[in-house]
Amino acid sequence: MAKRKQILARKLISAMDLPEDVILDLPQLKFIGNMELVVENHKGLYEYTSSLVKLTVKGCLVSIVGKNLWIQFIGRDDIKIKGRIDKVEFQQ
Amino acid sequence: MIHQLWYWLNGYLVLRFRGANLEIILNRITDSGLYLWNVERVADNIMIAHIGVGNFAALRSLLWGTRTNVAILDKKGLPFVLNKLKHRQLLLIGLVVVMISLYYLSGFIWFIQVHGNQAIAVDSIMAILSREGLRVGAAKKELNLRKLELVLMTELEDLSWAGITVQGSLLKIQVAERSTPEQETIQYGNIVASKDGLITQVLPFRGTPQVRVGDTVKKGQILISGQYYDLYGRLTRGRSEGIVRARVWYEAIGEAAYSRIVQSTTGITHSNYSITLGKYTFTIGKKPPFQLYQVHPQVSQPVIKGYRLPVAFTKNIYEEIYYETMVVSPEEARVLALDRAWKNLDALGVARESVESYQVEEIVVTDQLGIRVGLIVEVEEDIGQFSPEL
Fold it and tell me: What is the C-alpha to C-alpha distance for residues B371 and B340, in angstroms, rounded to an integer?
């Protein structure tokens, strides 16, 4: 039932040409090379070390793997991670 | 960036969080609308983060009841800087005094630079401008730069342009000199005689020779004309070039007397002392008891760590002198007069080595007091001189 609702919502958003990330509460990831990543609309920090940052986003986890990672700022919705980013992975 | 500037203005704290599951604590903090930056994980149970000073109370209440310990490592930002300065009022006063002094002193000219001059000396430019009030330490607002430029242009005829600009406390004078045509660039002209003489050699490189070997020429006479026929037989005007050597005669006179006044000492001496302070001198002791004397001062000026003090102590030794007349033999007087004649010749620019032959004429002065020697020398030299015809 929920899946049907989700499909219907996507079709409606697509038909009305609305921004999916806002309506569906999806995260937005913005990279600057491999040395900076800004994640908007995250749901919290799951794990944080200098080689791995795991963020909770709607429906999954985003793993950022790299070296010398650190958080330049963190607020309720957005986070900026700096360092050498090697891999970004989505885990359902 | 704007956030961080805002937090600097309001003050911020560097915090150390210690405890387990710090990610949960971080989420709790951000969920409540607080903002953290420069978050670093330094150990499994330790995190360092920055937070605005106004949010610290809210953060403390959030951590209440958790097992997370928070400590303030540093306090940064404007309020803390001002707070520190409150206890160091002298420093604050000093800063204000320095700022006011800097502002005041920036109203004066402290450096002057002159650029673009080659023939005109910097000193002559500065001498003109100093008459108009420009000097190191002059107030900027009292200077009329356009007037100074005008004065420079009026007084220095060789200037074609002058520009004066002020950059802070530096005054830059940029000048452009009038260029005069070089001698080499003049197209037409003759080679003329620079002095009277008897021609010994004519070597024309360009132009028509007007004299031959053996001719006597007068000063200013044309030696090689700038008019000549070119390869195609056309009469052409040009810049004549060549060497014209001639025998030239110079005259000089030397005199010497049959007597000579010689200074001698009687052997009697007298001493006194003087102290010099800056430009003032005080003498201690009596003046010498004789009219004619020569002084031998012995000055000692104390030096402390390489710096000479502005005080000097002098011992003046006066030696009595007298003058006596010595007889000079006619032969000795002749040699002396001849030597003086050679020196006078040297002053005319004739080197003794270049002289080919010379004649000496002796005249005994009518009152029998001395001798006069006339010296006539013959020199072979290049007398050609370029004379432009514009």
Answer: 12
The answer to whether residue A55 sits within a structural domain is yes
Mean predicted confidence (pLDDT) in B166-176: 90
Contact assessment for residue A40 and residue A28, using Cβ atoms and an 8 Å cutoff: yes
Cβ within 8 Å, pair B41-A46? no
Amino acid B265 reads T
Taking a C-beta distance cutoff of 8 angstroms, is the pair B16, B47 a contact?
A: yes
Chain A residues with beta carbon closer than 8 angstroms to that of B36: 71, 73-75
- Band (pLDDT 50/70/90 cuts) for residue B252 is confident
Q: Do B23 and A72 touch (CB under 8 A)?
A: no
Tens digit of pLDDT for each residue in A18-32? 777 766 778 899 999
Partners of B31 on chain A (C-beta within 8 Å) are 44, 76
* Percent of chain B at pLDDT exceeding 70: 96
Alpha carbon of A2: minimum distance to chain B alpha carbons (Å): 27
Query: Inter-chain contact B31–A76, Cβ cutoff 8 Å?
Result: yes
Q: Is residue B372 a contact partner of residue B337, using CB atoms and an 8 Å limit? A: yes
Mean pLDDT of B250-274: 89
Q: Is residue A10 a part of any domain in this protein?
A: no
**A44 vs B contacts (CB less than 8 Å):** 23, 27, 30-31
Give ipTM to 2 decimals. 0.83
Which pair of tokens denotes residue B271?
Answer: 């001493």
Q: What is the mean pLDDT of chain B?
A: 87
**Structure confidence by residue, pLDDT tens digits, B74-94:** 999 999 988 888 888 888 889
Residue A4 in any domain: the answer is: no
Check if the beta carbon of residue B384 is closer than 8 Å to that of residue B223: yes
Question: Could you write out the DSSP letters of every residue in A5-70?
Answer: HHHHHHHHHHHHT--HHHHTT--EEEEETTTEEEEES--EEEEE-SSEEEEEETTEEEEEEEEEEE
Question: CA angle, B363 as apex, B357 and B364 as ends, to 5°?
Answer: 145
Chain B residue closest in CA terms to A82: B38
Residue A12 lies in a domain: no
The mean per-residue pLDDT over the stretch B227-246 comes to: 86
